[in-house]
Amino acid sequence: MAVRATVSRFPIDSDALEASGLPWGLTVTPFASKDETGIGPAYGSNGHILPRCENCYAYFNTYCELDQWAWTCSLCGTLNGLPSDAIARYSYPHDSIPEMSSSFVDLELPLDGSEEEMTQARPVYVAAIDLSSSEEFLELTKSALLAALEALSPGSLFGLATFSHKIGLYDVQGPIPVVKNVFIPPDAESKLPLELEDAMPLLQFLAPVETCKDRIAAALETLRPITSWERSSGAAQGIDGVLMGGRGLGTAMEALFNYLGSEFGNTFALARVFAFISGPPDYGRGQLDTSRYGEQYASKRVDADRALLPEQTPFYKDLATIAVQSGVCVDLFAVTNEYTDLASLKFLSIESGGSLFLYSSTDDSTLPQDMFRMLNRPYAFNCVLRLRTSTEFKPLHSYGHFFPDPQYENLQHIICCDSYATYAYDFDFANNTGFSRHSREPPVVQIAFQYTVVVPPEGLQNSELPSSNRGKHLLQRRLRIRTMQFETAQNINEIYDSVDPEVVLSLLVHKVILVSLEDGVREGRALLHDWLVILTAQYNDAYNLVQYKNGNKSMSSQIDITFSQCPQLEPLPRLVFALLRNPLLRFHEEGVHPDYRIYLQCLFSVLEPSSLHCGIYPSLVSYSTPDKQAYPRHSLSRAALITSGSPIFFLDAYTTLIVFYTSAADPSLPFPPPQDCLLRKNINMVKQGRSITPKLMFIREGKDDATAFENYLIEEQDVDGSGFASARGFVSFLDDVSQSVAEYMK
Ligand SMILES: [Zn+2]
């Protein structure tokens, strides 16, 4: 569990918080195996007998004062009696007891009754493939699924389904694959005429991976796109013989969830559905009207971004709820450059704990690699995340892909989460008092994360298991707790010096995504601009940098817009500028596809702060040869490139990696860089540590089209994309901000 706060020294009260102009909060990556400094938890068992505070329910931790019979809660100060079993335990040498030796513990919990019965639950995976598609799409999907089959552990069950104007279910357990079809009614109201269970019993559909791998592959080979002839002979004929489309995603998903739901809690604890789509659902339930895209595009007078960001129907949000109730998590893979309205579809994946992937073409798609990567890493499910604070402050908002608990405040449910998934909170003071200036009690945050993992047979170390259970998957429930103490800042300089700019960026990104969803991209941009103006004003005020004189016209020239007195704040204007230049916040008129914007919103709202930094302001490293690094960091400006004189650059924009050879590069330098060189080693390291597979490009200036690389050199671009690219981009942005700051300070 990695936790990073916007400031490591907390403001003393709400006046100090306001005066700082900074967001106050933290990011948490609960399933990360290490903390933010690379240290793992103390492991143990019996999480259920860990003492809890009778007042605030916080867990006992290393910051609590312990007497022989009692302990004082480090969050609320309540004196609690020690249970007799704990008295005995805590009298042993402390390093053998996890909660006594570390403030970061990971403890096994006994399974509750219903889980007990299904400790042998098997992982279940279902692929649902769009046949209202192309040969290329199916080829790509096949190779992704073949990669997936290699990644699935023995004992997993796999089901293959297709959808178009009908749902196809494959039985691969017999000698030859058999497909059963159920036709989907074309209109948006009718349900399926037949339950899938009646077409094929679920346990016939779900095949053991280890024995059926070859037959699953054989069945995949038989997949063909449906032809228009097939469609018109099916139920897809509308009035006057007009073709009504044939992508019945909504009905197919609804039917699959109900189908799988019958074995939830019996055969499986979590089933994952991979839905592959090549365009918008246009048939049956949940069909989407994609003409709204054309209309917006035609008339530029409407705020297109505002019109295209909200969902057009609650259908997929409701469907996600059914998925969750059926124990299903949905990963959505959209391979299309057609407007697909991911704004409506996204809920299906993010609310069910899955991921959303968008590939604009089948040619350069990293879908198979993404699939393999996703299945190869551990995930936790059925998770509950709870953040507690000491009494002086409280969590205000929470951000990320989770469900709030209907009953308890500040309790979040996460259906499924991997080691990358990151969430954010911001804080507010509980009252006007704030932290007492002279108190010995520092602010404390405690994050508890309860989760279930499937332990594959080879991962079991417990030899006490009955032999009948050996070689089977087991469920394990665990409780991970991190308790952190912070300091308070005695003055504003101490706050500024303790800023973590990457975490500040994370909170800003969450906020602007929310604002742009509600009020449009224009509002999101305005919020960000205003935030930087206020921060700059507060900082200049705090350092007394501006002399107020009557009639002083050059006030803006005195303003320190670069935060030269405070290295921790220095990166922020650049980050804000880059965020404004990011497709996340660029205008529709600049050619940002609405589906791509939604994809970025979903991706950016789960990234941990350093990855997000890379996505917003890519890192640029120069090399003098493929084996020798020149400078570790360049600003994203053409001028910086030219003055550095290096022949090779490596740009990491999180989703894209670009190796760029300048036209001045010695022709004897090998291109592309050879496999065993330092640059390749660094590229591979970057790829390894990433949640998605970045696209890798090699570009030679003067020989290849360099647009992809040049687009990332944002500092010479105009911030709002309205004017021509000029050498004044970032510079004139700063001028503009300092004007606004001068206005604001007056
Ligand atoms: Zn307490």
Automatic annotation (TrEMBL):
Gene Ontology CC terms: COPII vesicle coat; endoplasmic reticulum exit site
Keywords tagged on the record: Protein transport, Transport
Entry-linked Pfam families: Sec23_helical, Sec23_trunk, zf-Sec23_Sec24
The keyword Glycoprotein is assigned to this record: no
Superkingdom of this protein's organism: Eukaryota
Domain Zinc finger Sec23/Sec24-type residues, every copy: 51-84
Gene Ontology MF terms in the entry: SNARE binding; zinc ion binding
SUPFAM superfamilies: beta-sandwich domain of Sec23/24, Helical domain of Sec23/24, vWA-like, Zn-finger domain of Sec23/24
GO biological process: COPII-coated vesicle cargo loading; intracellular protein transport
Residue span, Sec23/Sec24 helical domain: 500-612
Gene3D superfamilies on file: Sec23/Sec24 helical domain, von Willebrand factor, type A domain, Zn-finger domain of Sec23/24
Keyword Transport assigned: yes
Positions of the Sec23/Sec24 trunk domain: 122-374
Cross-referenced PANTHER family: PROTEIN TRANSPORT PROTEIN SEC24 (PTHR13803:SF17), SEC24-RELATED PROTEIN (PTHR13803)
Family designation: Belongs to the SEC23/SEC24 family. SEC24 subfamily.
Entry protein name: Sec23/Sec24 trunk domain-containing protein
Organism this protein belongs to: Brassica oleracea var. oleracea
